[in-house]
UniProtKB/TrEMBL annotation:
<protein>
    <submittedName>
        <fullName>L-rhamnose 1-epimerase</fullName>
    </submittedName>
</protein>
<dbReference type="GO" id="GO:0019301">
    <property type="term" value="P:rhamnose catabolic process"/>
</dbReference>
<dbReference type="InterPro" id="IPR008000">
    <property type="entry name" value="Rham/fucose_mutarotase"/>
</dbReference>
<dbReference type="InterPro" id="IPR011008">
    <property type="entry name" value="Dimeric_a/b-barrel"/>
</dbReference>
<dbReference type="GO" id="GO:0016857">
    <property type="term" value="F:racemase and epimerase activity, acting on carbohydrates and derivatives"/>
</dbReference>
<dbReference type="Pfam" id="PF05336">
    <property type="entry name" value="rhaM"/>
</dbReference>
Length: 120
């Protein structure tokens, strides 16, 4: 399983409309996201329109290819594109990926395999 995080910038004057467009997302688009293999997908909105997204997937390349070929996703992304600043391409394909630097679950699992260090 791969964890994917990304960042986008929403035009601050369009934040309220962007939020409204996601409450709810089209059922057909939800189905396409699920069919692509993405799960545990969330979007978080910060000050000034900073958007952070996260999802889990087994094969992100395959998921991206699936969505890139989907007419439903193309229609959704065409409508969503106007909300973003400094974006070259479809939002689902051109978001800035973020590098994972810490994951609690992974570190706990790794530490269970390592003997405790001697504090003396």
């Amino acid at each position: 399983m791969t964890r994917v995080a990304f960042q986008l910038q929403i035009d601050p004057s369009l934040v309220d409309e962007y939020v409204a467009r996601h409450a709810p997302v089209w059922p057909e688009m939800l189905a396409e996201i699920a069919a692509s293999g993405r799960r545990n997908y969330s979007l978080f909105l910060g000050d000034g329109g900073r958007l952070f997204g996260y999802y889990e997937v087994d094969d992100d390349t395959a998921a991206q290819a699936y969505l890139a070929a989907s007419p439903v996703a193309a229609h959704w992304e065409a409508e969503m594109g106007r909300f973003f600043v400094g974006l070259d391409g479809r939002p689902d394909q051109a978001a800035t990926p973020l590098a994972e630097v810490f994951n609690l679950h992974d570190q706990l699992a790794d530490s269970a395999d390592v003997p405790e260090s001697d504090p003396s």
